[in-house]
Amino acid sequence: MVKKKYLWRHPAGRIYVRLKGRLYRIHAQEGTEDFDREYWEILTGKRMQAKTSWNALIEDYRTSDRWLGLKPRTRQDYDKVMLYLREKIGPRDVKSLTRSDVIAAQKANSHRTRFANYIPQMLVILCEHAIDLGWIANNPAKGVRALKTPQHRKKEHLPWPDWAVDKFRAEASDLPRLIFEIGVGSVQRPGDWVGFRWGDYDGDSLTLRQNKTDKPLVLPCTAELKSALDTAKAALGVIPIAGKPILSKLDGNPMGYRYMSQVMLRERRRLGLEAYDLHALRYRGVQELAWQGCTDDEIAAYSGHATKAMIEKYAGEARQVMRARQAREKRK
């Protein structure tokens, strides 16, 4: 065996190649063919991509029924993690992954807890696919504990109070007001608002297939939402084609989530309502349904919530206030 004179071992046990004043880590286990290959690739500047690389695995996974059967929203979340994995370990051999590697990647992203917890989740799925392909025998990503969001970083969505709703409706500009009414009236996730087309509105109801759940819904409009939609439609001057987005930029192009979020943030700042965000509009809608005596099942039929945890939280708060006021009246 040729002696590898450029190796340097970290006190923690990690092995690096010291080359031209820089350190390049070798991820494979010492004494293996993969270790030798990584060493010479670093030394020659030719990091060859293994046939069983993460890049190759991700490409194959994206053609599988595991991927094709996912809901659009789930694909979006997974795509972000797979892009990260491509950038960090794309050319590396899948077989060299260890549990400690998974935990280290998760820890490196602990400043963004949700994304950090998606990393082991995505690696579990990819490793299961690698097992199916015969590349590995075990799944080193399984069983990695999810990180908890630190208390100081937790941010609750404050449901819009009556005075804030009244102020926004009275003083907001036309486009932010339309976005606002879609949020409260449809009781959907903000990511779905930009997907509404004029063909989804029949003058009384909106139709939708949710991005996250792929669930089809018919949403009867509130009086405020119907008025806002009718006003926006009339302002176009012509009957819009069915495929035209209801929420469009000034140049007529479709509005994305980020653009919509910026429009609303500017308006909320202008009106002194920055504390109440987009997601909280959905919770306001849930509370309004609860105030009208709707059951959790009826609210879920409108909002499309897959589980009732959020409904129970925000509808429960609304019912508590309502009952407390009723109790006050009885005390008089």
From TrEMBL:
> Quick check: keyword DNA-binding in the entry?
yes
Name one molecular function that GO assigns to this entry.
Answer: DNA binding
What domain of life does the native source organism fall in?
Bacteria
Asked if the record carries the keyword Ribonucleoprotein, the reply is no
Q: Where is the Tyr recombinase domain?
A: 153-331
**Keywords per UniProt:** DNA recombination, DNA-binding
- The signal peptide annotation in the UniProt record is none
Q: Which GO terms describe its biological process?
A: DNA integration; DNA recombination
| InterPro entries, alphabetized | DNA_brk_join_enz, Integrase-like_cat_sf, Integrase_catalytic, Integrase_recombinase_N
Give the Pfam families listed for this entry.
Answer: Phage_integrase
Q: Which Gene3D superfamilies match?
A: 1.10.150.130, Intergrase catalytic core
Identification of the protein by name: Site-specific recombinase XerC
